[in-house]
């Protein structure tokens, strides 16, 4: 599927028409846009920031090539001035961002872009497309990792995610959040995520009987994971035990996989059967429509499951497949900008987040204007200046995973639980923002 | 972001390891795999088949190039035999499929692949990735189109879909289902979908006042859609009216856009204001977190809204972001295959769907073995033979949209409603399949 590089056109039409208007009006002044979630989904105590690396790569690489410009010209919608500007386009702005893998809360910017207005506007759609989705999935995946309470989690749902890019980015976001491996071969190549895989029911079905399928598979992959539920789970476990007797010391099967039925009782029965057969080293791997709730239930009830295979529900973030996330103009030409649409009141100006830790535990954030100070550590950091990514703004995915683990471990325990934290984590406004909000609320209440 | 063509690696690791095992075992016989939804989501009376074109393009174009093979070799997991086989890989099989835009029901195959086992297995992940997602979105989008009851629907949610491929495929699937336009510029280029766009709040905010922003925008785009809710919706409408007085005969604004608040009362008030100002030609466009339910409510209550902008909830299929869809082996080496996993019993053999119409209304389907016959029209059609797409298996997207409109119009009215149809549409099994099901249920009940 070789395609021309059409990334530049992966944008909303109005980004181009507004850019046209800004050029016409000579509105070149500096704008600040803030990318943040207006509120959190009901079942998220925090979001885990993700997607920054793809956002920065886009800003570094965005170009309108000749083929793209020709197509735009053929549409008869755009002026030569706009097309000339697009031809010369290089993103020249600054970006400050919260590092990937950092927990963030409602209204806290994940990133802020400062650039001439047309540049900062033009990049909106793609930045949101990547940061929104990866953050949604990392936040969901972290819940699954918490539920697994130290047991392995593998991501393997490429087939039911939303297209090819989602397949890659789910693997990335899940790994960043602490998932240990993926079945997605390309994600292994591109991101260096450990690959893992088992076998499908079709493999067992294609053989005349299950035991014969197991025999054949371990001839090729001696340390395989054998799927035991194609016909009857516990009979499948018996077949694994029989295979162990046949192979004696050559038996190296690493695990069995349960993919249906009552995973609690089946895992208990399977574990007992394996232990009684002298196979304590054979691990139990469970899958089949799992999410953080089902994983938590199995763990809480002591299911003897060593690894969880999780796919669809995690990778589509089934209970919150989208976040209320936006990219909003907060300053132009040196003046803060507000917006008063019903229910969508906006805090003006570039911002900073200060996170206040006590004894290594985060106790609250203060959201301030960028130049204000507050107690705690500032979370937004410079990552791009004049269109160039700064040194240090390209952590490895393993670094990001470690950062996420560290930052999440600093959250209060009730934030890490699956249930909604009551009260939620405190995010307060610095004095200037608090005044701005009061003023806005007054303005909004006064509107006819 | 130019990348090597890595599509071949966009697969689950186990597709490669199972292929390795099949080569080792010499299991070259013909397999039939069936791609179908095991059941429908609670709020779907049918699914609208989509994604076939991408599936067939994949089968035609799938190759393992030198760079891909080198990387696979470097992993130390795969034999030279497998790598050599992948190097020579060309999909040589047959595909029968339901045309895109056809309503289908639980257990009905959207497509069936018949090919030597290793080939048919290898392509599983990508086929599901495309057909599952596009079908989920087309099915959701059709509900929005039904709810709009003839009013325009525009798709504009690229920013909150799941990555870049989702952005394109949502635009495609929504258009196929009857949505009229998209904001996604690349979808316009690639699929020829009409482009549409309005303006963002940032445009209004960047100007000193709203009226000045409107004046500036219509100088560039005289027939623009003006967004009126940045500060106060009805004051925004007054600004549009004032602009009309200023411009006199030069006023060509096509519509106003409401994006927040109570869209029913605001649209009524805005319509009255525009009519009283002698601007009956200015249309009212509504957006802001809409889905089929909110659209239906507005239409039912007679909201004077001409067009709906729908994004996130439609494009992530928010109430059913994934389907229980699978790609299952149903025959190998001429013998039907079953699977008895708890709750996932499988109907064996290649199939056909017969849809029985009475007076132009579909009254029921019969799912049969491929070679059986039943009253009605067969829905699965040959689309690929020996790896070559058949003439007629490349309808235009406009053709598919027309086909969808026609096929949906043949469904009984209760199927097209948003509420669950009671009783659901009848899908019965042909005699041979009914016997197979009984036999399976017996087998399954008999399992210890």
From TrEMBL, chains A, B:
Taking every annotated instance into account, which residue ranges of this chain make up the domain Nicotinate phosphoribosyltransferase C-terminal?
Answer: 377-434
Keyword list, A-Z: Glycosyltransferase, Ligase, Phosphoprotein, Pyridine nucleotide biosynthesis, Transferase
- Pathways involved: Cofactor biosynthesis; NAD(+) biosynthesis; nicotinate D-ribonucleotide from nicotinate: step 1/1
Mind naming one GO cellular-component term on file for this protein? cytosol
Which processes are annotated in GO (biological process)?
NAD+ biosynthetic process via the salvage pathway
The Nicotinate phosphoribosyltransferase N-terminal domain sits at: 9-131
Gene3D superfamilies to which the protein is assigned, alphabetical = Aldolase class I (3.20.20.70), nicotinate phosphoribosyltransferase (3.20.140.10)
Q: Which Pfam families match?
A: NAPRTase (PF04095), NAPRTase_C (PF17956), NAPRTase_N (PF17767)
- Give the SUPFAM superfamilies listed for this entry: Nicotinate/Quinolinate PRTase C-terminal domain-like (SSF51690), Nicotinate/Quinolinate PRTase N-terminal domain-like (SSF54675)
Q: Does the keyword Zinc apply?
A: no
Q: How does it get modified post-translation? A: Transiently phosphorylated on a His residue during the reaction cycle. Phosphorylation strongly increases the affinity for substrates and increases the rate of nicotinate D-ribonucleotide production. Dephosphorylation regenerates the low-affinity form of the enzyme, leading to product release.
One molecular function GO term is: nicotinate phosphoribosyltransferase activity
Q: What is its EC number?
A: 6.3.4.21
From the UniProt record, list the reaction(s) this protein catalyses: 5-phospho-alpha-D-ribose 1-diphosphate + nicotinate + ATP + H2O = nicotinate beta-D-ribonucleotide + ADP + phosphate + diphosphate
Source taxon at top rank: Bacteria
Residues in Nicotinate/nicotinamide phosphoribosyltransferase domain copies: 153-328
UniProt entry tagged with the keyword Ligase = yes
Per its database record, what is this protein's job?
Catalyzes the first step in the biosynthesis of NAD from nicotinic acid, the ATP-dependent synthesis of beta-nicotinate D-ribonucleotide from nicotinate and 5-phospho-D-ribose 1-phosphate.
Q: Which family does it belong to?
A: Belongs to the NAPRTase family.
Protein name stated in the entry: Nicotinate phosphoribosyltransferase
Source species, please?
A: Pseudomyxococcus hansupus
